[in-house]
Known about the structure:
The complex is a heterodimer.
Chain A: H1 2-47, H2 50-55, H3 57-79
Chain B: H1 2-16, H2 19-30, H3 34-38, H4 45-54, H5 57-62, H6 78-81, H7 83-100, H8 106-119, H9 132-141, H10 145-157, H11 161-165, H12 170-175, H13 178-192, H14 200-207, H15 214-224, H16 229-241, H17 243-254, H18 257-260, H19 272-289, H20 294-309, H21 313-336, H22 341-344, H23 347-375, H24 396-408, H25 415-439
Amino acid sequence: MNKGNLMETNLIVEGFKFMGLGMGTVFIFLIIMIASMNIMSIFIHKFFPESKLEINPAPKQDNKKVIAAITAAISHHRQG
Amino acid sequence: MKNIVIKFLALFMLFTFSNVSANETATHSTGSDTHKEETYKSQTFSHMVTGFLKSTGIVAFVSPDPDELNAKGEKISTFHKGLGRALMILLTFFLFWLAIAKGFEPLLLLPIAFGGLLANIPVANIGGAHGFLGVIYSMGLSNEMFPIIIFMGVGAMTDFGPLLSNPKTALLGGAAQFGIFGTLVGAVALSQYGFVDFTLQQASAISIIGGADGPTSIFIATKLAPELLGAIAVASYSYMAMVPIIQPPIMKALTTDAERKIKMTTLRHVSRLEKLVFPVMVLTLAILVLPESTPLIGAFMFGNFLKESGVVERLNDTLQNSLINTVTIFLGLGVGSKLAADQFLVPQTMFIMALGIVAFSVGTASGVLMAKIMNMFPGHKINPLIGSAGVSAVPMAARVSNKVGMEFDRNNMLLMHAMGPNVAGVIGSAVAAGVLISLFQ
């Protein structure tokens, strides 16, 4: 009986140890992740702002329009 | 039936080939039955009919073969061969009903249930080592391949944008992992007080149901307690399907009316580069902190990285659609093979089902409570309803948060806010899984 009781406390304590270690790791991991996410976004916004990336597609569309207009003009000219 | 087919086959060979080669071929194809075909003599028709009748399924259910072995080569009790199988087949019909009429995760529940139906057929031994379900199981489940591939697909479907724009909501995804470890303590306590006999490995495998993440549950169960895989997978997927029923009462009980009406600040725009760096960053952290979690996180981030790179649209499309669909079919059937009566109809199953729902409830509650704790600190207020989305179950749990929020304020859209803790929950449960694995190394 005594031995059984001893085993009981041991296993449940074991479960709580798992909980402590597990939740600790999960939270530490997520806190580090949150911190690095914040650092990353500050870094990216400072050195690689989005607007620069988006400048490129815009002229491409203009180019297409210009090309389309020129082709239309040329074909019109040839027909005429 | 099988014997007669074998006999016909052997006779056919006798006529076709010379005597010697026929014997050799028959030895290869029929194994231990060889001696029977050698002594084959013309039987009276009534003999053949009784012989055939003895091999029907009805006889196999009513008076099963006493020497039949299960997938592991152990003897099966009479109950598990007769009534047990019949009960399991009825249970699979019930799962069909849940999947089709009630819409409970049909994508996985249907293959699992049908696999269960096939695994409980007597005589044919489909779930055995040489049956096709057994082959599927050893092909991708016993080596944890399928859950990993599913994880890649899920990664390709995941958008980390909402999490990146409000990083602190990741804590909610961490809090919900209390569901896992709370249940672990519960399972260990149950076996302590002699209700059921779970080892620490089995208790850990069961508790991961609280992560509300199907592939992670299957991954851990095959690693730590393969004998419980069927019950754990069924519990995990059926409770995930029941998230809209389980969660709202808990969420409402733990929040006040004012809290439920909290409006959250609009999410900022997230640049493409941030989304591209994020998967590599998380994987790097996982490598540094907990390498045991990298199979899951690595596969997840691989899928996400392909998606966010934007240059491999074809691979991204395959991961999100054809690959994940193919593997889902195999995964479902393979898990279904563990629904064989002799493995599923054991007292432990009942406790797994009970512990599973405890795991989900504790996870939900701790997510909500964590949000309330975070609101005590200065900063933007968080609507506690999104805390419940910290249990993974993407995107179902986030939709539930949104729905409950709308019940109290028609204009309060919480969906995108809830996606943050939701995807963080996936990362959180992968980390928790890594901790559990590392403890048993």
